[in-house]
Design brief:
The mean pLDDT is 85. The chain is 71% helix and 0% strand.
């Protein structure tokens, strides 16, 4: 018994050590950015990123908040934050909605090619947006969506991960839910609103967070599709203010905060969905 207890203790210690190493590896870059944002640009350029707290935090963050760029000084932190929120919230909301409706149709509607449709949707994971920039740009230009928020948002909505996530969950739902809905005379819309949506809140929250981060961290596509200064996002603004400067590091910290806050708000739903709890 003591040998078994000792073996279990060793396994637990090893597991915690592995988790601790993972936490350190993931948090170290964030801590490095936060600490570097408190140093001068000259220090960062001469000595590299810093692991100690500096004395220029107030000056760097003040310069970021007062930053203006562009032909008409339209590139400001507030304007970039607004554009980032519009894009990220648009991508997150529409991706969650379309993924849920697509999975709902594939699972609960009798379609002869439902499985083939699902696998075609899933195959889009093999083709990232960067691999279809040229054709996507041509279609966006034909639709007249250059230099618009819609043009930035729409191409990112084709995310098969959400559809796969919802489909796998819908397949685990008991069949008596469908039978009860049919006996009550509920149609497809009522079944979706009264039964499927309440059961899918945690999954929808997880997909919303993931899609928000995808939309928030976009760089190449907004850079390609928009030339208007009024459409700059925070991620694009880092290049303007200087990637190796103190204010640039401060802007990176500000850019990280909204997704972090969103993750804290949705953490119960997010981790609940990942652990397969309703």
């Amino acid at each position: 018994m003591q040998a078994v207890t000792g073996y279990s203790l060793v396994r637990r210690c090893i597991s915690h050590l592995i988790l601790l190493c993972g936490v350190v590896i993931m948090l170290a870059p964030v801590v490095l950015i936060v600490l570097s944002s408190t140093h001068t640009t000259q220090t960062l350029q001469q000595q590299g990123l810093q692991w100690v707290w500096g004395d220029q935090a107030l000056q760097n963050y003040s310069r970021v908040l007062a930053f203006e760029a562009g032909f008409f000084d339209q590139v400001t932190p507030l304007a970039m934050l607004q554009n980032s929120l519009i894009v990220a919230l648009g991508v997150a909301t529409l991706t969650t909605l379309f993924s849920l409706l697509t999975a709902y149709a594939i699972v609960f509607f009798e379609m002869p090619l439902a499985k083939w449709v699902f696998w075609l949707v899933l195959m889009t994971l093999l083709f990232p947006l960067e691999s279809r920039f040229i054709t996507t740009f041509q279609i966006t230009a034909l639709l007249g969506l250059i230099n618009t928020h819609v043009g930035i948002i729409l191409p990112v909505l084709a995310a098969a991960l959400g559809t796969f996530f919802f489909r796998q969950y819908f397949l685990t739902l008991p069949k008596y839910l469908i039978e009860a809905a049919i006996l009550d005379g509920a149609g497809p819309w009522k079944f979706l609103v009264d039964i499927i949506l309440p059961l899918s809140f945690s999954r929808a929250g997880a997909i919303f967070v993931i899609a928000f981060m995808i939309g928030w961290n976009q760089y190449l596509w907004p850079l390609m599709i928009s030339t208007d200064d009024s459409l700059y996002t925070l991620v694009r603004g880092i290049r303007l203010i200087g990637q190796e400067s103190g204010p640039g590091m401060a802007l990176v910290v500000i850019t990280i905060l909204p997704p972090f806050v969103l993750l804290l708000v949705f953490q119960r739903w997010f981790y609940g969905a990942l652990s397969s709890r309703v």
